[in-house]
């Protein structure tokens, strides 16, 4: 995702990567920080990014740590991968 939200990233330094890795295939630390039954913080706001009924939310209080993916079934908090992981 280009950073700040809504910008086009030209390099990896201009982007952020958030990963849903429930099996720990990429990194065990990402699996351990994934919350599949998250509660949106009070300051969470939609980013404007959506796919059908799924929306991305950011919380200014923890946007450096994760992003919220919200759909009809609830919310998930995907952890930020910093530094980003390359192709596997």
How much strand? Answer: 25-35%
Globular, elongated, flat, extended or rod-shaped: what is the shape? globular
Model regions low in confidence, pLDDT < 50 over at least 5 residues: none
Oligomer: single chain
Helix-strand blueprint:
Elements: H1 28-33, E1 35-38, E2 45-51, E3 54-58, E4 66-71, E5 74-79
Antiparallel strand pairs: 1-5, 2-3, 3-4, 4-5
Q: Could you walk me through the main structural features you see in this protein, from its secondary elements to its overall organization?
A:
A hairpin with a 2-residue loop joins strand 2 (45-51) and strand 3 (54-58). The model has no long low-confidence stretch (mean pLDDT 89). This protein is 7% helix and 32% strand. The chain has one helix at residues 28-33, and strands at residues 35-38, 45-51, 54-58, 66-71, 74-79. It has one domain (18-79). Strands 1-5-4-3-2 form a five-stranded antiparallel β-sheet. It has one helix and five strands; from the N terminus they run αβββββ. The chain has 88 residues and is mainly beta.
